[in-house]
Amino acid sequence: MNDPYVQSAEYMDLLIADAWGLFAPGLSEALRGLGGETGVTVDVGAGTGRGVAVICASLPDDSPVLAVEPSPALRAVLLARAHEDERLRSRVTVSSADALGVPLPDRVRALVAMNMIGHLSPGDRHELWRRIVPRLVRGGCVVVNLAPPTRPAGVPRSRMASRSVGDLTYEGWASAEVVGEQQIRWHLTYLTRSSEGSTVSEVAVDYDWWVMNEAELRDELAEHGLTTRQIGHPDASLYVATRLQN
Questions:
Q1: How many CA atoms lie within 13 A of 87 on its CB side?
Q2: Is the entire prediction scored with pTM above 0.90?
Q3: How many CA atoms does the CB half-sphere of 142 hold within 13 Å?
Q4: Could you give the CA distance from residue 230 to residue 12 in angstroms, rounded to a whole number?
Q5: Exposure string over 43-76, b if 16+ CB within 10 A, otherwise e
Q6: What residues does 228 pair with on adjacent strands?
Q7: pLDDT, tens digit, for every residue of 16-54?
Q8: Cα gap 129→244, rounded to integer Å
């Protein structure tokens, strides 16, 4: 498997912490608004498990979660997070499959797809919706965010995030170029700096990303019988799509 996170995994959980401060309220609002029908919440591209923790805190204590993460490096952190927290340990099942290959439960309460939808081509997205929608319980939902840019456009190099632990500071830098009508290629650099500012280590990662705007998301999900609305802080670009009837 080609794992785009194998080199950058040590940085990921640290550098997405601030972003999850923005995402968490909207995700929690979407999940707390679900109806009373039971089912499994499926988190595809669960990463290091920050979203899993929000999901479990937002739903009843007996509500199960299937956390899907194909990257072994990220999954190691996810599994450790689920194991060390008694509130998660009995509820969270961790799968090494990917979004299109994971065996799905018959009844899905919600599908959560945070910071991952750009890994899927338009055809792969339609396949994901095709698999999920028939399994959604009445009132069930899909929660997804759209990371900028939402149209093919270059992104100048800038610092995404920075966190200090002990004497070291960890930084993430990013730029992007257009590589297709619906694709960009991210160029990411992760740095570890000493307290004096010198570079202790550096990792460079490139990967392609499919872009989509709000109108395209709404139209795409409508084809599968879902009604979409924005939720949470506007800067989070977070959307909840609901299946009103079975």
A1: 10
A2: yes
A3: 28
A4: 26
A5: bbbbbbbbbbbbbbebbeeebbbbbbbbbebbbe
A6: 241
A7: 999 999 999 999 999 998 877 899 999 999 999 999 999
A8: 15
